[in-house]
Amino acid sequence: MKTIRFTVNGNEVAVSSPPTKPLLDVLREELDLTGSKECCGKGECGSCTVMINGSSVCSCLVLVGQVENETVITAEGVGLAQNMDVLQQAFIDEGATQCGYCTPGFIVSAKSFLNQIEHVPTEEEVKTALGGNLCRCTGYTKIIKAVQSAAKLSITQQGVKN
Amino acid sequence: MKSKAKKDVLNEEQKLKWIGKSVKRIDGPEKVTGEQKYKTDYSYSNMVWGKVLRAKYPFAKIKSIDTVKAEAHPDVICVLTYKDIPGFNGFGIVTPDQPVLCEDVVRCTADAVALVAAETVEAADEALDLIEVDYEVLEPVTDVENAMLQGAPKLHKDGNIHSHVTIKNGDIDAGFDEADYIFEHTFYSPRQMHAFIETEGGWGRMEEDGSLVIECPGQYGHRDKLQIARALALNPERIHVYSSPNGGGFGGKDEITVQIYLALLAMNTGGRPVKIHLSREESVIAGIKRHPFKVTVKTGAKKDGTLVANKVRAVADTGAYASLGGAVIALAIEHASGPYTIPNVDMEGFCVYTNNGIAGAFRGFGVNQVCVGIETHIDMLAEKTGLDPIEIRKKNAYKQGDISSLGHVVKSSVGTIETLDKAAACDLWKNRDYYKNQVSEPWKKRGVAVATSFHGVGMGIGTPDYGAATIELLQDGKFKVGVAIEEIGTGNGTVYAQVAAECLKCDINRIVVVQGDTKQTLDSGTISASRSTYTGGRAIATAAPNMINLLTEEAANLLGVSVSEIELAYDRLVDAHDHTRFVTYEEIYESLHDKHRSKRVEGHFYLPKEKEELKNSGGAPHHLYGYMTHVVLVEVDTLTGQTDVIKVVAIPDVGKVLNPQGLEGQTEGGAVMGIGYTLYEDVLIEDGYHKTKNFTDYIIPTIRETPEIETIPVESNEESGPFGAKGIAEVVMIPIIPAIMSAIYDATGARVYHLPATPERVYQAIQESKPQSLISR
Ligand code: FES
Ligand code: FES
């Protein structure tokens, strides 16, 4: 057991855990952040995706010791029901979630991708960015639309602000 | 009375406020933020971990089970075997032939032999290793045809043929005699995995009042409850199952998954809640799969494109246990001659036990496997005769009131011809030569093809099939709509809210939907068989007038007028003569509450059935079917055999579309699942052992494989359905399968009869289709 400190969704946390425990299990079991799911445990499905210092990674493959002093963001950190991110709203508006089990992972991957660009991505770009996330329900078409429409909306909103 | 009400609904169609609109999912916010709690997301202090010991061999006798060492592990709470089952040691939706915990024989590697509860997952795993099972290994039965032979080792005491169904109509020999062309081929289909992203898992725990709670995703909580009660010898009234939401189901959570294990453990942990959550590897081995079929189809047709005879023999590998295998093969045979009027058919199907895991319900339910025969043969006929493949299908398609290939009069709505007309008129079909020329590389070839199919809605004859809904007025003026049918991703809860808001003439935000909760809702059947919109919707539409009566009577009391003078206005009840006088739902609640009157009403509904069952058919025909045509464009890499689906046009007839966005969600998800079935997916089992382990070697389509998908709905009005709706969830992945197969042929001149059409198989077929002079060097 070791005390490991890091930031999750803007809050500093200290967990006492074997440093070799997967970050995913720590988030779910110690911090009750259950938006991130385990589906394959092998880095194949992306349903456990979180951002570490802004980049999206599979939290099932990261050991909690590796995120000491780092910044982690989960789907809950992108936005909660009362203050949803444009991306989350776009997923609802476009019908991009069905059973929803994969959705938090998609939200994190897509958010991390959108944070890195300042244009409306082409379909090919979205497909490349989200290639590591599996969804069995939607057929992905509406997910692609949701990411594009969120990008469009953020750009307009930024334009208004500037 | 009834028909007048229907007319009113139709007349009011223009005025519909919620029906037919792309109402956003009511559970959207919690899904996109990760706040939605699935069953395995819950946590309880004081919990323990449950694990299942699976069989080491696909077929073996158990000589002894020794749990002493496991029990001695300091962190182990209990170890359970068959001896600890208080009730009936078996489960299975139709035939309960699967042991909860095996006693003297294991029949597949999915079999459970013992259960463990321990303080940690690690301790539970260690305990599994400490259980000593002495086996006498037997030779596994892995081939369906061999399994059916006389001398084959028997998996079950009645032999290896679980069921045999037949449908015959007309005179098959005379039919082939009059045929100008006869096509005969054998098709093999894959063992597709549901691959829901949420693996099986949940909680078992005892309430303080001694009742047992099972929180576990499932597709029919009320039936799960009965299966648990039977195994535990408990009063079902003392069991509460919470089975919604599901992180995907597709049929794979229709059967019991881990519910009975959770229940057994929960009763042996001294009141501590127990959690089981299968790893993907365990889910691959333990979970049911789609039945692999071997289907031989012989089709006879005339020069003018008239189909005159169809003979089918289908053999389904159900693995070690029946689950819904009997019903799957029955539905397959019912659909094996397509939505056509072939006068002479002779079809039979066998559901056969082997030691290859377990197969059960899966979206499409047998129709996926058989539709390839008739559809491929129609395309071959088109090529031989030079007739248009859409015209041949139209010529043979039955219309409402016609006699189907099964020999029964189809009384419900039929949209096949309209879907085919839309296919003929769609851009991809009209301009197919243009699209085929747009190859991305010179060595790639493109093809376009069309296929049509259908799928029964609801259960066959002889299986209970009912819906029930409750509507309760709440203190804050909202309506709690209870329908047991679970949310598995389809958005049925949103449709239920739409139907309720429409019928009650209120804002949709007033509707609170409760699903998958055996304590709060009435048994309303499964979330399967494309029945949930139709059944749940009708049940709500039946309950709503009862609520309106309740509201109206109380409003009349409060306003001091007669019931006939009360009008249901939007979100309130008004005095018909003076609209400024009204009562709110909150006021009605208060008034009913003060009088200690019930604020809850019920609505019940039985799905319409055909009166006469076709002899030996296992429940055919259905009364109601959904219809669908797909047009696809594929591109095949002739150097590698790799096939990409580029475009899909999905043309469903599902009756009235209640939520266009939800419909597209189904057509898009179904198309992509159909692509996976046709091109990539197969759980490989060798000698009874799974070679496929996880998503590392089971490839489902990713976002990169997603084609452009266009949905063009045909809206036939199904008189019996809620606002004219039928069902959708299964047919959306069916005709795309033969359409892709024929598009590969259109592109390359090669046909693949063994799915999935992997690059190796397509490449091989291309080589074989080349004229000899080209391949011999
Ligand atoms: S659970 Fe982490 S990638 Fe699948
Ligand atoms: S919405 Fe169900 S897996 Fe993506």
UniProtKB/TrEMBL annotation, chain A:
Domain of life: Bacteria
Molecular-function GO terms, alphabetical: 2 iron, 2 sulfur cluster binding; metal ion binding; oxidoreductase activity
InterPro entries: 2Fe-2S-bd, 2Fe-2S-bd_dom_sf, 2Fe-2S_ferredoxin-like_sf, 2Fe-2S_ferredoxin-type, 2Fe2S_fd_BS, Beta-grasp_dom_sf, Diverse_Oxidoreductases
Coiled coil residues, start to end: none
Span of the signal peptide: none
Keywords: 2Fe-2S, Iron, Iron-sulfur, Metal-binding, Oxidoreductase
Domain 2Fe-2S ferredoxin-type: 2-78
Pfam families per the UniProt record, alphabetical: Fer2, Fer2_2
Protein name: Purine hydroxylase delta subunit apoprotein
Automatic annotation (TrEMBL), chain B:
Pfam families: Ald_Xan_dh_C (PF01315), MoCoBD_1 (PF02738), MoCoBD_2 (PF20256)
GO molecular function: iron ion binding; oxidoreductase activity
Residue ranges occupied by any Aldehyde oxidase/xanthine dehydrogenase a/b hammerhead domain in the UniProt entry: 33-139
SUPFAM superfamilies: CO dehydrogenase molybdoprotein N-domain-like, Molybdenum cofactor-binding domain
Highest rank taxon of the organism: Bacteria
Protein's UniProt name: Xanthine dehydrogenase, molybdenum binding subunit apoprotein
Organism: Ornithinibacillus halophilus
Upper lineage: Bacteria, Bacillati, Bacillota, Bacilli, Bacillales
